[in-house]
Amino acid sequence: MQEKLENYIEELSLFDDIMDKYEYIIDLGKRAPSLRENEKIDEYKIQGCQSSVWIIKELREGKLYFKTDSDTVIVRGLARILGDIFAAHLPQEILNFDTKELEKLGLQEIISPVRLNGFTSMINKIYQYAKDENRG
Amino acid sequence: MQSEMIRDDFAFFNHSDLVYLDSASTTQKPKSVLEAMDAYNTQYCANIHRSSHGLGNAATSKYETAREIIGKFLHVGDKSEIIFTKGVTEGINLVAQSYAKEHASCVIISALEHHSNILPWQQIKKPLHVIQTKENLTPDLEHFESLLAQNPNALVALIHTSNAFGITHPIKEMIALAHRYGAKVLIDAAQSASHMPINISDLDADFLVISGHKLYGPTGIGALYIKKDLHPLCNPYQVGGGAIMQVFYDHTEYLPIPYMYESGTPNIAGAIGFGAAIEYLQSVGYAYIAKHEQNIIAYALEQLSQIEDILFYTQVASMQSNISFNISNIHHHDLGILLDKQKVQVRVGHHCVQPTMRFLGIDGTVRVSVGIYTNKADIDQFIKALKRSIAMLKG
Predict the structure, then answer these.
(1) Does domain B2-21+285-394 have CATH number 3.30.70.1350?
(2) With the CA atoms of A31, A33, A37 and A39 taken in that order, what torsion angle do they form, in degrees rounded to the nearest 10?
(3) Where in chain B is the domain with CATH 3.90.1150.10?
(4) Inter-chain touch A19–B338, beta carbons under 8 Å
């Protein structure tokens, strides 16, 4: 997680112009695979976002992976970053990760407070999945 | 140029390089409003209606003068018909609880109503009837008449100008039609009053609500007009000190309206600021305001209409004071974020009209709204930012 996070921090820090940062996130959003329509159900939907966001977990050999989607391309890009950072880790590793580290992405700067709440909700969903697996 | 002089009246534009195109949400405040509120807080701050000292009298006098200013602004016959509220939302809730709960059989609304003109009626459990729309979101007056005929003693509650789509209802005609069937009419003039004169005597509305902060005044203050003839039918709402003549342990004798509805210490500075805002608006004059804003809206529409894949939801010519649109295959929230990052402040979302959006089969729109200070440079910067945003999202 830390390594991927640092890769994203480095990539995002290359842009002096905020619009370039958005171009990067939009590009990620456009390239991210979409969920099937029958996967876009309330169970996977994130509460607290202005736009619709879905995160689905997949468990392979004890490790969690995340499929993400949104009706807005910018949020799809952000969800993709998060899903990628947490992918291929054991539930306990995810739970041990300090979410404050994610602030280093500088997303506070590029997403508005309302959307930041949405971003927090996305992180919470991933943590909930990790907790569920840990219990399970 | 008058437009530049007007812009100079607003301190916001001296401090900010943002393009503000969200005046339908709230307007910026001219210096005269801030000064009037500051004068109350620094020179004659006292409670009103209860202090017999000179300072209290000075504050009461200014507060009541503000009521007179608003009464004249709306062309009402008697200043006691003007009640200070927190804003349009409180005004509608007050009418629901104090009048409609007992005296209305049901409520007839248009298909463009703000949530604040839907929820209060649900709270009092009155059946809601929605006037069907024709193409371009205009009301079907034949359907309206049939609802009136089928529902005696209805209350009709109509938005004057749509906050979400900028179109204006023919309220004079609709009020007259409602009255022919014995219905009473509430008009939500939150969006219209800053763009066109409101003459209650001429309209013959029974209730009318406005918000100070959409009229270049402060937030947390508004006014509700209740026609004098209906005062005897209106029950107390939120009660307490300042609303009473005599209190006994088993009953209370209330003061007449408006004081019955202004219990507790009101927003004194807000009311005084509201009065100053109306004076400011009148000093600019509606002749200028209408001409200037129509020019700006026409200028914006001319450029927006040339943008590929733009979607409007009503006739272009009927959009006044605000423009609502989408770009095909682009989410309005994406546009909102990118416009914001380019210093352009617009509103995106459902604009508190979810049933209308549902009817149109959309989640929301981008809304651009203007005020007396908006200039063509604002529109130019918005269009430039919009084109860049579209290119980023589509490319």
Answers:
(1) no
(2) -140
(3) 2-21+285-394
(4) yes
Residue appearing with tokens 């203050």: B221
Distance CA B188, CA B156 (A): 11
Instruction: Provide the pLDDT confidence category of residue A99 given band limits of 50, 70 and 90.
Output: confident
Extract the tokens encoding B109: 């609304």
Q: What pLDDT digit, counting tens, does each position of B32-84 carry?
A: 999 999 999 999 999 998 777 889 999 999 999 999 999 999 999 899 999 99
Domain ranges, ordered by start, for chain A:
2-135
Write phi, then psi, for B159 (nearest 5 degrees). Answer: -75, 135
Q: B146 Cβ partners below 8 Å, 6+ apart?
A: none
CB–CB of A71 and B363 under 8 A?
yes
* CA nearest neighbour of A91 among A47, A129, A51: A129
Closest alpha carbon to A53 in A72, A38, A29: A72
pLDDT at A115: 60
Q: What mean pLDDT is predicted for residues A87-108?
A: 88
* Separation of alpha carbons B392 and B384, rounded Å: 13
Amino acid at A59: L
In the numeric block, which tokens belong to residue A49? 């976002």
CB-CB contact of A118 with A48 (8 Å): yes
The answer to whether A115 faces chain B, any CB pair under 8 Å, is: yes
For chain B, residues classed under CATH 3.40.640.10 are: 32-283
Q: Report CA-CA distances (Å) from B103 to B119, B174, B340, B376.
A: 18, 20, 47, 49
Strand order in the sheet with B82-85: B82-85, B222-226, B207-211, B184-188, B154-159, B106-109, B128-130
pLDDT range class, residue A136, cuts 50, 70, 90:
low
Task: Name the residue among B340, B342, B393 with its Cβ closest to that of A26.
Answer: B393
Q: What is the mean pLDDT of chain B?
A: 95
Q: Is A124 on the interface with B (CB under 8 A)?
A: no
Question: What are the angstrom distances between the C-alpha of B363 and each of A55, A132, B241, B297?
Answer: 21, 32, 44, 24
Would you say residue B241 has pLDDT above 90?
no
Which residues from B are below 8 Å from A when comparing CB atoms? 331, 333-334, 337-338, 340-342, 349, 363, 388, 392-393
Architecture of domain B32-283: 3-Layer(aba) Sandwich (3.40)
Catalytic status, residue A9: no
How many C-beta atoms surround the C-beta of residue B329 within 10 A? 8
Structure tokens at B250: 């088993």
Tell me the CATH number for domain A2-135: 3.90.1010.10
The C-alpha atoms of residue B214 and residue B89 are separated, in whole angstroms, by 13
* Cα dihedral B56, B57, B63, B67 sign: positive
Query: pLDDT > 90: what percent of chain A?
Result: 59
Distance from CA of B108 to the nearest CA of A (A): 30
